[in-house]
Each structure stands twice: as structure tokens, then as C-alpha cells.
Specification:
Strand content of chain B: under 5%
CATH topology of chain A: Alpha-Beta Plaits
Number of strands of chain A: 6
Number of strands of chain B: 0
Shape of chain A: globular
Structural class of chain A: alpha+beta
CATH class of chain A: Alpha Beta
Largest interface: A-B, 10 and 10 residues
Distance between the termini of chain B: 73 Å
Oligomer: heterodimer
Order of helices and strands of chain A: EHEEEEHE
Number of domains of chain B: 3
Strand content of chain A: 35-45%
Radius of gyration of chain A: 16 Å
Strand order of the largest sheet of chain A: 2-5-1-6
Helix content of chain B: over 70%
Distance between the termini of chain A: 19 Å
């Protein structure tokens, strides 16, 4: 089953050094998961100041600066994994370095079945 | 043929009463689907009532029922061409009649454990864990559960449906956790059982003082987990439930009014529960185990050993609450400890702590805190502060029998 692990955290809670350590630890975790065939994709995201939002309501297309909503904690990164069940996903979620100062949300994917194959 | 009662009818009814939940747990594993398991369980029993009178009772009736239910379930799944998690092994053995060996007692017990752990998964909200456990493990119907927790049947039904949907969609596996996960997950299971008992022991709202059916189900669940996992903390929980439930016959008078511990007729306490609870407690302590349930059980045991309220070893109880505090740091534990201090050292000694607790953020809305303050002032003969505290308690109480008790105490002051 595929799960998306969404890492939320307050951007100002991290020092530059902590951020770099988090990325290094996360990359190491990606390699470990890849070795077990569980890794699909992962990345930290650039800060919310780089976000742009797009809405397409009633035929009007609107582009604005900023995230979809101003929140205390922001989406900071993600892991996309393939594991047998929720407990396996939770064990990985507990290990995400980003979770040290934030919250990791674990969401199962709906798999529509007609998506293009991921290029390897 | 109608009106003739086959000897098998009673046997089948007995099987249903004793074994249907065990069979259900196994079917959930075999068919990977709660609703299908329930439907096929019912169908298998109906088939039994039709076929056994003609063909005779099978040697292993439980295995027969599981096999028939499983086969029908697999047929239906194939017809509907759903994607399910079925072992290839199951598909292959489906057409064979070799059922006797597969479903021995150990397999069935494992499946019951799987069901309990699945229903109590921390990914489900606590009220959903409780609802699912009562429905799927205990077999209570939705209406009974709704009424026990004072919600609408439709609300409870929706809670259960959503819980099952989450189990399926989020991929909660139907397994008994192992290794380090077992301890964490066991905590969740024990917590559900404890919450069911607590709600049965002292209903939070409404007309009734306690719900006997919830108390009985909680004890039954604790016994079930005990037979499957005789860990010390499980013994501690079962001991706590038995030692607490032992007092139930004395907890209300003929009119349904609550009788406080100090006024209870201790000859009405159940000595069988007390003996069993104390034996479990000794067992768990002998294993060198100390945990929150065991400590609460030990406190209940001190009460059980006392001939009267006054003769209770309050010093021992205070000491036990001190230990319990180190595990939980819960404000309610602090309050209960303070009440025990009132008994050990007198109300004047305990009042400063009681006042502080009743004024704290965590307990300001908790009526027993104000009732305890009122009680201490009452014992000191200080009517005005007692009245003020009783009024604060009355403003917060939501259970009618408790309200009447507080009103009576208030009236006695004048």
C-alpha cells in the first residue's frame, strides 16, 4: 500500500544547522528505505515564502502569492512510500527527522489504476 | 415438521452463544472483511439448523461452521470480483473438505486477539476503539452501545461504520503485534477495557448510577485478554476490575441512590471477586511488576481488607497513591490522594491541598473536587465554606443520583 507522509512544522523552529542535519538524516533514511524497496519519492520543500497558489473557480483562473492558507505550521516536506500496512508506515513516520519538531501526517493513497508508470 | 424441536436446536443455540464471536474473529481473517464475515457467520448458522437435523452433528461443529462460512464468503467475493487480501493458500484449499485440522482452539484464540488489537488500534479515535470493541469483540448490538454511552443509535452506527472504513482504507492490519509494539498496543487495549468499565461503574450523565452490562463486558474482555496474554499489567487490570466490581452490590440502596464507601454494607461485597482479585494481584506483584492498574488494584485491595471505613489502612493508601502519582501525574490521582490524607491526618491537614486542587485549571470543572472540599469543611463543622463548595459541585454535576446526594448533604448543613 502506498502512503504519503506529510511533514508539517513551524519554519522558524529550525536553525540553519538543525535544518541541514535534518536533511542529511532524511537522505540517509531514503537510502535505507530504498534498500528495502519501500522508497518511492521524498523531498524537503522550499519555504512557504516561495509558494504560489492557483485557483480555478467558475472559469476564473487566479494566481496569488503565498500558501493556500496561513497556518502556524507549514508543509515542509514529504515521503512517498510503499509498505504492507499502516503499522509499517507509522514506524517510518516515527523515524522521520522532520517529526522531531513537527507533526507527520500519514495518508493512504487512493490508487486510480490508470496513472502512467513512474519513470525509473 | 413444524413445532417439532430437534435436539440440535439447543446445541446450535448454545454454540451461537458461546462461540459465534470466536468464529467471527477467524472469518474476519479469512475473508478480510468485517461485514462479509458477519453475513457469512449468520448464513452458516442458518445452514446448520437446516442440515444438522438431517445429517447429524459434525464431529467438529465450530470447524464446520467456519468452513461453510468461509467457502460461501469466498464464492461471493469471486462473484463480485473484488480485490481482497486472501491467502492463495485459502483459495486452493477452498474446495477441499479438510477442515478439521485447520481450526483448532489455538488458531481461534489467536484470531480473537487479532480482532481485539485491530479494534483498539491507536490510529482510531478512543471512542471509536470502544465502540468497535463492544460491537465486534463483545457482540453487543449498536443500539445497546449507543444507549450505554448516551448517544443516538444513528450516531453510534456512523461511528462504527467510519471506524471500519478507516481500518480498511488506511490499511490497519489484522494481526497481533509483536516485540516492542506489543507493549504499546497492549496499553491501548487495556485502556479501552478500563474506559468501558469506568463508564459502566459510574455513568457520567443521566438518571442511572451504573451500567451493569458495561461492567460485565469489561470484565469479560479483561478475562479474554488474560487467557490470551497473561502479562502482569493485564493481571493488574483484571484484579482492579474485580476488586472494584466486588463493591457494586453495596453501591446503591433500594431506591437507586448512591451509597458512599463509608456507608456501604461490606457484607454485601462479593467475596469471590475479592479473593480472585487479590490472587491476581499477588501473582502480578510476585512477577516484580508495578504499573498503574496494579497500583489501583492494590488500593482497592486495601479497601476490600478493611472491616470498616474508619478501620481502613489510610496510610497504606496514601503511600500507594504516591507511587501511582509517579506513573500518571494525573490531577484525579492527586485529588484521591488528598481525600485519603483527609482520612489519615484529618480534614484540617488536607484542606489546603484540596482547595488548591479544586481551584486548579484541570479540576475546577470536576465536581468531585468541590465535593471533597465541601466534605472536609463539613467534617470540621464549618457550614458556610461547606455550603459554598457544595453549590460549586452542584453547578457541575451531570448525573442525577449524584446530584441528589449532594443536595441531601447541602440540606443536612442547615
Amino acid at each position: 500500500m502506498k502512503y504519503l507522509l506529510l511533514i508539517y512544522g513551524a519554519e522558524d523552529a529550525w536553525s540553519q544547522a538543525e535544518r541541514e542535519e535534518c536533511v542529511a538524516d532524511s537522505v540517509a533514511l531514503c537510502h535505507e528505505l530504498s534498500g528495502k524497496g519501500q522508497y518511492l519519492s521524498a523531498a524537503p520543500l522550499q519555504p512557504v515564502s516561495t509558494a504560489t497558489s492557483v485557483r480555478n473557480h467558475n472559469g476564473r483562473k487566479i494566481v496569488t502569492d503565498g500558501p493556500f492558507a496561513e497556518t502556524r505550521e507549514q508543509l515542509a516536506g514529504y515521503f512517498l512510500i510503499d509498505v504492507p500496512d499502516l503499522d509499517a508506515a507509522l514506524e517510518i513516520a516515527k523515524r522521520l527527522p522532520g517529526g522531531r519538531k513537527g507533526t507527520v501526517e500519514v495518508r493512504p493513497l487512493v490508487e486510480p489504476g490508470k496513472l502512467p508508470k513512474t519513470p525509473s | 415438521m413444524s413445532g417439532f424441536r430437534y435436539p440440535h436446536t439447543e446445541a446450535i443455540e448454545r454454540l451461537y452463544r458461546q462461540d459465534s464471536r470466536r468464529i467471527y474473529a477467524t472469518l474476519v481473517r479469512l475473508l478480510g472483511n468485517f461485514a462479509l464475515a458477519e453475513d457469512m457467520l449468520q448464513e452458516a448458522f442458518i445452514t446448520a439448523t437446516q442440515e444438522w437435523p438431517v445429517q447429524g452433528m459434525p464431529d467438529n461443529p465450530v470447524a464446520w461452521l467456519i468452513t461453510v462460512a468461509r467457502n460461501r464468503g469466498l464464492d461471493r467475493l469471486r462473484r463480485e470480483q473484488r480485490q481482497v487480501d486472501i491467502d492463495d493458500e485459502q483459495l486452493e484449499t477452498h474446495s477441499a473438505l479438510h477442515y478439521e485440522q485447520q481450526f483448532d482452539a489455538e488458531v481461534l484464540e489467536d484470531d480473537r486477539l487479532r480482532l481485539i488489537f485491530t479494534c483498539c488500534h491507536p490510529a482510531l479515535a478512543p471512542e471509536v476503539q470502544i465502540a468497535l470493541t463492544l460491537r465486534e469483540v463483545c457482540g453487543l448490538d449498536t443500539e445497546a452501545i449507543a444507549s450505554a454511552f448516551l448517544v443516538q443509535t444513528a450516531t453510534m452506527a456512523q461511528r462504527i461504520v467510519r471506524g471500519k472504513a478507516k481500518i480498511r482504507t488506511a490499511g490497519i492490519a489484522y494481526i497481533v503485534p509483536e516485540g516492542p509494539q506489543l507493549a504499546e498496543r497492549l496499553e491501548s487495549v487495556l485502556s479501552v477495557i478500563y474506559l468501558v468499565y469506568t463508564e459502566g461503574h459510574h455513568v457520567s450523565r443521566g438518571e442511572v448510577l451504573f451500567r451493569v452490562d458495561l461492567c460485565i463486558e469489561a470484565i469479560r474482555l479483561a478475562r479474554l485478554v488474560m487467557t490470551l496474554l497473561p502479562e502482569p499489567e493485564v493481571k493488574g487490570l483484571l484484579a482492579l476490575l474485580l476488586l472494584t466490581d466486588a463493591r457494586r452490590p453495596a453501591r446503591s440502596d433500594a431506591d437507586g441512590n448512591p451509597v458512599l464507601l463509608e456507608d456501604q454494607d461490606r457484607t454485601r461485597w462479593r467475596s469471590d471477586y475479592i479473593a480472585e482479585g487479590k490472587a491476581l494481584l499477588d501473582d502480578a506483584l510476585a512477577a516484580g511488576h508495578v504499573g498503574p492498574y496494579l497500583l489501583q488494584a492494590a488500593i482497592a485491595a486495601v479497601h476490600a481488607d478493611a472491616a470498616s471505613f474508619a478501620a481502613t489502612d489510610w496510610a497504606q493508601i496514601v503511600a500507594l497513591y504516591d507511587l501511582l502519582w509517579r506513573f500518571t501525574e494525573s490531577p484525579v490521582v492527586a485529588l484521591n490522594r488528598a481525600v485519603a490524607v483527609t482520612m489519615r491526618d484529618g480534614p484540617a491537614a488536607a484542606l489546603p491541598v484540596l482547595e488548591t486542587l479544586a481551584a486548579s485549571d484541570e479540576l475546577a470543572q470536576h465536581y468531585p473536587a468541590h465535593a471533597a472540599v465541601a466534605d472536609a469543611y463539613r467534617r470540621l463543622g464549618q457550614a458556610e465554606p461547606a455550603r459554598a463548595a457544595y453549590l460549586r459541585a452542584l453547578a457541575l454535576v451531570q448525573q442525577e443520583p449524584d446530584r441528589r446526594l449532594l443536595e441531601r448533604r447541602l440540606a443536612e448543613l442547615t
